[in-house]
Design goal:
Helix content: 25-40%
Oligomer: single chain
CATH superfamily: Nucleoside Triphosphate Pyrophosphohydrolase
Largest sheet: 7 strands, mixed
Number of strands: 7
Radius of gyration: 14 Å
Strand content: 35-45%
């Protein structure tokens, strides 16, 4: 990892379906600045532990506290000409409620297949598969 790598962290936030069908729903955030749909994530503060940063970003972007679980694959890509590394965890949504901000103006709770289709970046779709595998193994 080079010194100019942007370090970030996030979660694939999920909840049990409120429809009683024993399925799950995944939370996606809409960022108006990029007009995209993604998992809640953000840059780490200097010296911040990645898991603590992921939990903080979930709360800031979705209004939800979360219970982190299994680590998921780390994403590495180039963003704005710099390497970026985003560490992810599975996280179950707990208490809280969404309030729109300039950074995130909407969230959606979708079943896994619909969430996979709605995500803007293909690299984010593999995280849904990793989440489902992690939940299935517990």
């Amino acid at each position: 990892m080079s010194d100019d790598t942007v370090l970030a962290a996030g979660c694939v936030l999920w909840r049990r379906s409120p429809y009683g069908d024993e399925g799950i729903e995944i939370c996606l955030v809409h960022r108006p600045r990029y007009d995209d749909w993604s998992h809640p994530k953000g840059k780490l503060k200097r010296g911040e532990d990645p898991l603590a940063g992921a939990v903080r970003e979930v709360l800031e972007e979705t209004g939800r506290r979360c219970l982190p679980g299994a680590p998921l694959p780390t994403a590495r890509y180039i963003a704005n000409g710099r390497p970026k590394q985003v560490e992810y965890w599975a996280a179950e949504a707990m208490t809280g409620s969404f309030v729109p901000t300039e950074e995130v103006d909407r969230i959606l709770w979708l079943p896994p297949a619909a969430a996979r289709s709605r995500l803007t970046q293909p690299r984010d779709r593999t995280l849904i598969d990793a989440l489902l595998a992690a939940l299935h193994s517990t």
